[in-house]
Amino acid sequence: MKNEKILFIILCAAAFCALLIWAVMPGRVKEAAAQNNGTAPAVMIIDAGHGGADGGAVSKSGAKESEINLSIAIKTEIIANLCGVHSVMTRKDENSLHAQDADTIREQKVSDMKSRVSLVNSYDNALLVSIHQNSYEGKASGAQVFFRKGSEISVETAAAVQENLRLALCESNSRVPAPIPKSAYLFSHTTCPAILVECGFLSDAVESDLLREDGYQTRAALAIIAGYLAALQEQPPS
Ligand SMILES: [Zn+2]
To answer: Which of 2, 97, 152, 207 is least enclosed, having the fewest CB within 10 Å?
Structure first.
């Protein structure tokens, strides 16, 4: 048996054990919410970035960001459900959310973004978790989490997810959370607590290969939910 196959089986077994641990703690979120004086977000909106004609960043080997985002988002939703975290997804397949009368790619991108904004704004007391992959012309690697400035739960969640991603994906990752840029449309047109998770760099050959692996994606998804649950417990009662 090839070493890669053995490693994949070990990773799957580790992910399965982690899932079991979370699955036998159905009261975890309620406990965290109770400690947080009941102010926990009522729903996590899991947003797989890009989709449809907008593939996002592309690795040198041809891996599309939109596909990796979706794969990690689906895993995040499965783990959220196992942990009792109520969640919804902005998209569940490769299609974008544009209106039928949007013809050009630009029109489709604008329409898709407006649909995501309406969906996010239709929920009260939500936490938006947007999943993306990074890209840079120079040498760069490592997951990084961004947060909505001025939102305490966003800052706390970003810090906890960043630490969990470091432990789950690459212990030497020294990146720290940063504010979401004001130019990001989805975040400048919504107001709920929000984090943007850049799981890694598609421009880095080694990291882009890892980001395509099921086991690596599962670890990223586990880190997002584990970080969220940790942040809930650290929030002081309001
Ligand atoms: Zn992106």
So the answer is: 2
Q: How far is the CA of 6 from the centre of ligand 1 (A)?
A: 32
Class of domain 3-234: alpha beta
Break the chain into its structural domains and give their ranges: 3-234
Work out whether the CA dihedral 54, 60, 65, 67 comes out positive or negative. positive
Centre of ligand 1 to C-alpha 151, Å, is 22
- What is the distance in A from the centroid of ligand 1 to the CA of 35? 34
d(CA 25, CA 21): 7
Give the per-residue pLDDT at 36: 52
| pLDDT for 109 | 93
Low-confidence ranges of the chain (pLDDT < 70): 1-39, 235-238
Reported as type and span, the H/E element at residue 169 is: helix 152-169
The pLDDT of residue 51: 96
